[in-house]
Amino acid sequence: MCQVNTDPMKSQSAFLEVVIPPDIISEETSNDMMVPEGGSAKLVCKARGYPKPDIVWKREDGTEIISRTGLSGGKTKIPSAGGETLTLSKVTRGEMGAYLCIASNGVPPSVSKRMMLHVHFHPMVQVPNQLVGAPIGTDVTLVCHVEASPKAINYWTRESDEMIITNSKYTMSEIKTSVYSVQMRLVIMNLQKHDLGGYKCISKNSIGDAEGNIRLYGEFRQLTRSKDKKSLCELGI
Q1: What CA–CA distances, in Å, run from 74 to 67, 77, 169?
Q2: Which of 37, 39, 84, 115 has a 20 to 30 Å separation from 93 between CA atoms?
Q3: Which ranges carry the Ig-like domain (predicted)?
Q4: 149 within 8 A of 127, measured Cβ to Cβ
């Protein structure tokens, strides 16, 4: 209050408001979390500041948050969610990824914390082509798609369970297609008769294992002679 000693006395009052930018309270906020597929996850984010900060949740990759409500578990996709607690129920592998809690109160700067949600499930193997044919003498590629979390050990075998290793005959590679999926590729070079038969792509993690089967056959060109004509026929083995 400012006062002037006159007759009559004059005074002027003012109110000073101190504002404090938001700050995440680390000891009361969730860290990275692991849940089994089909389970529930509860992420908590606490922040201090004045005025009291508002909390907004978003997925780091920009995809929508899946909200399930009621006994039926009705699913709703929302771009963001508010409140200190984000509860995810009946979690699927598609919900795996980074979540951001963002605290703001109109006093810059806003702050955020990143939390990684890991969803664990046993491997699943998909084989796009279970029967593959290629001409003898050419290179052929076998492909399997694998989904697994935690990360799986992936490898190839012949149908006799003999493990395949990279050498002058075989080249193996993996291409990551998402946070939990990879494409397994096996290249068989200079295909010969003894390479034909069954192949297995196998995936194992701490929860379980799975395999896919591919049968490889060769395409031959055989010359058939007769008295007055020659013909070519293709045989598959």
Answers
A1: 8, 10, 52
A2: 84
A3: 22-112, 123-217
A4: no
